[in-house]
Amino acid sequence: MNTYPTPWQRKMMWAALTAFCVVLLIVIVGTVIWTSANILSFLQPILIPVAIAGILTYLLDPLVTKMSRGALSRTKAVLLLFTIALFALSGLLSWLIPTISIQSANFAKQVPAYTEKARDRIVDIIYRLDQTFGLFGGAHVKSASRSLTNLLIGPGSPSPHAQPTATVIALPGAPQAMASPGETIAPSPAKITTAERQRIQAYVEKQIPTLQRALPTLAERFWEILKKSIGGFLGVTGFLLSLILVPIYLFFLLKEKPRIEKRWKDYLPLRASPFKDEVAEVLLEINKYVTAYFRGQLLVCVVDGILIGSALTLLGLNFAPLIGVMVVVLTMVPYLGIIICWVPAVLIAAFQWGDWAHPIGVTLIFIVIQNLEGIFYAPRIVGDYVGLHPMTVIVSIFVWSLIIGGVLGPLLAVPLTATIKVLLARYVWGRRLREKVLESIEEVPVVAESEPATHS
Question: Considering the entire predicted model, what is its pTM?
Answer without folding.
Answer: 0.62
